[in-house]
Specification:
It is built from 19 helices and no strands. It is mainly α. The longest helix has about 55 residues.
């Protein structure tokens, strides 16, 4: 049996080439959108972190000037302060407008939830339809309506019915003095003002939180007591953001690698690799001729030279794709990059995840180092430390029973294995904190930082494509082996700190 593509090989090649152009255009659209914005923000944040760390390290070795002021400049504290002032002013202006509402704030918020803040809400309703919508709200089976009612009920049982009935009553009373055409414009404007007030207040509160957070961070970084742990957090953040940047740049590299001047064309009469290669070669000759003419006329050749460079790069790409198997490989790489781009997190989510990860560790540390009898009594701290050591030893023994080389494990066994490893990591981290008053072992600080990197890497790889997860797992195993070797090195120097069942 033969297929149409076997009878006409160029047809199959043209179809693959058309697919290549379409996929590359899709990737180019992704690169030109949110991904580039996230990459730019991540690079600027990384540069800022590097500058802050450098300022602190230099000040530590050779103190000069006001460290706090240097940090404020590096962290753009002044810009954030100005932004906070302007947002506070806008929030106050929005608050002033809601003092002149036709109803109470709660009542106007209800109307905003039900009818929306756009012009196509109340303005297009008759008074009968308006009141009917409110009267049927509590009995509605619509999920959105049920959420509105549930939110009102959070204020207290029966609050939903009270607020709804108050709105109906007040508007009906006002309609005795005001026509509906006038009333609906008043209500519509009021709803817009409430929505604006809500938006401006949220923006101001978010910036206020960022400003307070930066204040606290500057205080910690400039304090001798807390600067070292704060620098540690910055280094964790720097490592995670560097990895995130590499991920985005690997996606962008694929787009750049297969870019041609023709893949940006949206409308094509024909799609043929051979004809496009000939067209590129012809255009290169014309461009060189134009450059020659421009030089003769003493005109600028800057843009023509850039155009020539792009065309010659395009010719190189197309010539490579014409070789056997190269087109299929290019399509596969572009499709993988597209899949990765769909799973990669937005930079705001990465920052939020990092803050959460660091906050959880700080809470754990605060719990262990708080002003409790445990933290104040060295003997009890030592007892807890020894208990953890014994539990770690037992867990390691049970882990050896599950992880038998060459054995095919079930999903349940794998889950048990992962849970045991997490518990071991947590106990080791607790013991690192419980030992914090003791002189650090030679490799202890390095091990601590490596474990932080492991946690962050695994957290950021969750939910991503198979290749990224495999890369993270490989990194995880490599670091675990390094930690194991460093612990063995320390235990040779200080055998009393080992994790053994023999006690």
């Amino acid at each position: 049996m033969w297929s149409p593509s076997q009878k006409n090989p160029s047809k199959g090649e043209n179809e693959r080439y058309a697919r290549f152009i379409g996929k590359h255009r899709d990737l180019r659209n992704v690169i030109g959108g949110v991904l580039t914005v996230d990459l730019d923000r991540a690079q600027r944040e990384l540069a800022k972190l590097e500058q802050i760390i450098q300022i602190i390290e230099e000040h530590k070795h050779q103190p000069s000037g006001d460290l706090r002021e240097k940090l404020k400049t590096a962290m753009e504290y002044g810009n954030l302060t100005e932004k906070l002032k302007s947002e506070k002013l806008r929030a106050e202006e929005a608050a002033d407008k809601i003092t002149r509402l036709p109803l109470s704030l709660d009542e106007m918020k209800l109307l905003s939830s039900v009818f929306g803040s756009e012009d196509n809400g109340i303005l297009y309703l008759s008074p009968e339809k308006f009141f009917e919508r409110l009267e049927n709200l509590q009995a509605s089976t619509n999920e959105g309506d049920q959420k509105i009612v549930a939110k009102l009920e959070q204020k207290g049982q029966g609050e939903a019915n009270r607020i709804i009935q108050d709105v109906i009553k007040h508007i009906k009373e006002d309609l005795n003095r005001t026509k509906w055409d006038e009333m609906k414009f008043l209500l519509s404007d009021g709803i817009k003002n409430v929505a604006n007030y809500s938006d401006k207040t949220q923006i101001y509160n978010k910036t206020l939180f960022m400003h307070s957070k930066m204040d606290a961070e500057i205080t910690q970084l400039s304090s001798e007591k807390t600067s070292q742990s704060s620098i540690g957090r910055l280094r964790q953040k720097k490592a995670a953001i560097s990895e995130y940047i590499q991920e985005l740049e690997s996606i962008r590299h694929v787009e750049s690698k297969y870019f041609t001047a023709l893949t940006t064309t949206t409308a094509r009469a024909t799609t043929s690799l051979e004809s496009d290669l000939k067209a590129i070669e012809k255009t290169i000759k014309e461009c060189k001729k134009d450059i020659k003419e421009a030089k003769k006329e003493k005109q600028s050749t800057k843009f023509l030279l850039l155009r020539l460079k792009e065309l010659e790069s395009s010719k190189k790409v197309l010539s490579s794709l014409a070789k056997k198997g190269k087109l299929e490989k290019a399509i596969e790489e572009i499709e993988d990059a597209l899949t990765s781009s769909q799973k990669v997190k937005h930079f705001d989510d990465v920052l939020e995840e990092l803050d959460k990860n660091i906050s959880e560790k700080e809470e754990q540390k605060a719990l262990l180092m708080s002003d409790s009898p445990l933290s104040n009594k060295k003997e009890e701290r030592q007892t807890k430390f020894e208990q953890n050591k014994r539990e770690i030893a037992k867990l390691m023994a049970s882990l050896d029973a599950v992880k038998v080389e060459g054995k095919i494990i079930t999903k349940e066994e794998k889950k048990k294995w992962e849970d045991i490893e997490k518990r071991i990591d947590k106990l080791m981290y607790e013991n690192d904190l419980l030992k914090s008053d003791n002189p650090p072992k030679s490799n202890e600080e390095i091990i601590h930082n490596l474990k932080d990197s492991m946690r962050i890497t695994l957290a950021l790889s969750e939910g991503k494509d198979k290749k990224t997860q495999e890369k993270a797992t490989s990194y995880f195993k490599s670091i675990k082996q390094t930690i194991k070797e460093m612990r063995e090195e320390d235990e040779n120097l200080n055998p009393d700190h080992g994790y053994s069942l023999k006690k």
